[in-house]
Design brief:
The structure holds two protein chains of two kinds. By secondary structure, chain A is mostly helical. Chain A contains seven helices and no strands. In chain A, helix 2 runs antiparallel to helix 3 and helix 2 crosses helix 6. By secondary structure, chain B is an alpha+beta fold. Chain B has two domains: about 60 residues, no CATH class; about 160 residues, Thrombin, subunit H (Beta Barrel), CATH 2.40.10.350. In chain B, the strands form two sheets. Chain B has a six-stranded antiparallel barrel with strand order 1-2-5-4-3-12. A six-stranded antiparallel beta barrel of chain B has the order 6-7-8-11-10-9. The chains are: A mainly alpha, B alpha+beta.
């Protein structure tokens, strides 16, 4: 429950920032996706019973504020989580290179799933083309952001009232 | 260890610290607040500066205020203060005037179309780069419904995409899902205006739409004004959309296409008006 509340707060703040202050940053074509990085982190470190409800809420939040078809983000984030959990025993996500690569892969999977769903739901093909052509650079951007954000999310996931308000300088001998 | 060598070793330790502080102070700073060490030094130096400055001012004041130009110095200071105050007021007035002008332009539409309107503020943008939409701060409770047209001070912005009680999503003209029945104002040549945010042949960041399915014999030239035709049943006729650039043949060669630069700059939208058509 603690993790759920922490990440829902994170999700709301991330979506609000992405749609207001960070809208159009770094460019109009490529934008930060903090939720994707959080999904990647959950895929690296959390079991499904803790992560899946959070991911579903993330997807719903994102689809609510976007003009894209509802359900796109939910499906793509769940797909990313599933992929990461399938390979988690075979990768060493703690290393920088591995983390960079897998967040980039997660970003590409996000775009691929989105393009597939748009085609399936009968949207104009140029949107799917647009999504696919932007995927490589977007993946680089997300991977770079992931290098910084994933450790921070790890620290954030460990936040507790007792650690935040523990008296400083207390030494147990 | 002798006293002087002890003193020397302390100085040697102090030197790197001083150099680090010096280099840090030379780094370009984006923040407006002073660093902690600057504040500390400033708190030590500031009282001395105040004392010296007050004494100097006292001497200068005595000379200027009483001996050389009686009262002129005081009047000059008062006028400078008044000038600074008026400059601030002017800046605030300019902002109010700009907002007034935008809102007047918007109100012009309600006179032309004789419909009820709702002026709203744009509060957020689409977080996905592939879709172009904005959120406005009014919704169902203000009479806003799906597909209602949305206009800005300069021209058409889009239509309502989703609505909640207190907010609504506006699908912009340059969204790939957008499609508006439009025509060239001069020749009445009709086409379908679609969002083309993928392909921008003009300068980067300039949002474009594309007029498709123009007949090959259509009379259309660069800089022609495009307006809504009203034939799609969503947008009233005559709403200004943009200007024509770069006319080409379609890929299959049957139709013409033209890139249309919207009058509205969608990145700078602040207030928009929803035309409350039923």
């Amino acid at each position: 429950m603690r993790l759920f509340i922490l990440y829902i707060i994170y999700g709301i703040i991330a979506v609000v920032l992405e749609s207001t202050w960070l809208s159009g940053i770094p460019t109009a074509k490529y934008q930060f996706d903090f939720l994707l990085i959080a999904v990647a982190y959950l895929g690296f470190s959390q079991e499904w019973r803790h992560a899946v409800p959070i991911i579903v809420i993330f997807g719903i939040l994102y689809d609510t504020v976007s003009a894209g078809p509802f359900g796109t983000a939910v499906c793509s984030y769940l797909a990313i989580y599933t992929l990461l959990r399938l390979v988690i025993t075979k990768i060493a996500y703690q290393s920088l290179v591995s983390r960079f690569a897998w967040v980039a892969i997660a970003s590409v999977v996000d775009k691929a799933v989105m393009a597939f769903l748009l085609l399936m739901w009968g949207y104009p093909t140029n949107i799917a083309e647009l999504v696919i052509t932007r995927a490589p650079l977007q993946a680089l951007l997300d991977a770079g952001l992931g290098l910084i954000l994933v450790p921070i999310l790890g620290w954030y996931a460990g936040l507790r009232w007792s650690t935040m308000f523990r008296p400083k300088g207390l030494v147990m001998r | 260890m002798s006293f002087s060598s002890h003193k020397k070793s302390k100085l040697r330790l102090l030197l790197p610290v001083v150099l680090i502080l010096l280099f840090l102070s030379l780094m370009p700073r984006a923040q407006k607040r002073m660093m902690w060490y600057e504040q500390m030094l400033s708190n030590i130096v500031a009282p001395f500066q105040w004392v010296f400055s007050s004494v100097g001012d006292g001497f200068t004041g005595a000379w200027d205020g009483y001996i050389s130009l009686v009262g002129t110095n005081r009047e000059n200071k008062e006028l400078k203060l008044e000038n600074a105050r008026l400059q601030g007021k002017l800046a605030r007035t300019a902002e109010v005037k700009s907002e007034n002008e935008r809102l007047r332009n918007l109100m012009g539409y309600s006179d032309v179309f004789s419909v009820e309107t709702a002026v709203t503020r744009v509060v957020a943008s689409d977080p996905r780069a592939e879709f172009k939409s904005v959120m406005i701060d009014k919704g169902k409770s203000d009479g806003i419904k799906l597909y209602m047209p949305v206009v800005g001070p300069k021209g058409l912005v889009g239509r309502i995409g989703r609505v909640t009680n207190g907010s609504a999503q506006v699908l912009l003209l340059n969204d790939p899902n957008s499609a508006v029945d439009a025509m060239v104002q001069r020749s009445r040549a009709r086409g379908l205006l679609v969002g083309a945010s993928a392909r921008t042949k003009l300068k980067t960041g300039y949002f474009l739409t594309r007029l498709e399915y123009l007949r090959r014999v259509s009379d259309i030239h660069d800089n022609d004004v495009v307006v809504t035709s009203g034939l799609d049943g969503v947008f009233p006729p005559g709403l200004p959309v943009g200007t024509v650039h770069n006319i080409t043949k379609s890929q299959d060669g049957i139709f013409k296409e033209a890139e249309v630069v919207p009058f509205e700059n969608f990145q700078e939208l602040q207030e928009v008006m929803v035309l409350l058509y039923n």
